[in-house]
């Protein structure tokens, strides 16, 4: 298995429940430091984060439906960066994906990319459990064409489900190492996390980070 410390540096320690309080977010940040994870991911209204030195600050955009005007997503992303986010995880327009309008999907992502240019890291949530293989490939290609840094499986809120090994393998194969791949949604133990890493995930979105890390060896 992958060593615990190496896995920790793949983790976005996440709290995106709508009812999450200021105190719960502060506890998330403290736990992230204790666990040695790479990043925390919180809702935009919790930015800027206090006492987040030493961890990367990530947030979400157009979350969780993705059914927002591109201009609104772009404005949200710009505000997030102004409030201290180093990484933005945006949700694609799933309706456009279902309609096969990949130019619209790409333009939506590009609008957010323009509003949050490098060095901000842009991750694109494609909601892979709601897409077939052909749509997953096309969504990844649109994200790459629009200048994204990562493709990400899931919000964790869609009724279709979260990450799967198959989706991560397909996404990793499609982006070919040119983009990162974030597996998120339903990863609750070390075995599931290791399976995602083996499938090609280069980042993990976890809410149960401590429980997951407990299953990995120290070295």
Outline:
The chain is α/β, with parallel strands linked by helices and 219 residues long. It contains nine helices and eight strands. The chain is globular.
Describe the protein in words.
The chain is of the alpha/beta class and 219 residues long. It has one domain: Aldolase class I (TIM Barrel, Alpha-Beta Barrel). Helices cover 41% and strands 17% of the residues. It has helices at residues 4-8, 22-35, 70-82, 94-98, 102-115, 133-145, 165-175, 190-199, 209-213, and strands at 11-15, 39-42, 56-61, 87-91, 121-125, 150-152, 180-184, 203-206. Strands 1-2-3-4-5-6-7-8 form an 8-stranded parallel barrel, surrounded by 6 helices. Helix 3 (70-82) runs parallel beside helix 5 and helix 6 (133-145) packs across helix 7 (165-175). The chain is globular and about 45 Å long. It starts with a helix and ends in a 6-residue tail after the last helix. The model has no long low-confidence stretch (mean pLDDT 98).
Terminal CA distance reads 9 Å
**Widest sheet: strand ordering:** 1-2-3-4-5-6-7-8
State the major sheet.
Answer: 8 strands, parallel, barrel
Poorly predicted tracts of residues? none
Order of helices and strands: HEHEEHEHHEHEHEHEH
Discrete helix count: 9
Anisotropy-based shape = globular
What is the SS-derived class?
alpha/beta
Nearest-angstrom radius of gyration? Answer: 16 Å
Mean pLDDT: 98
Residue fraction in strands: 15-25%
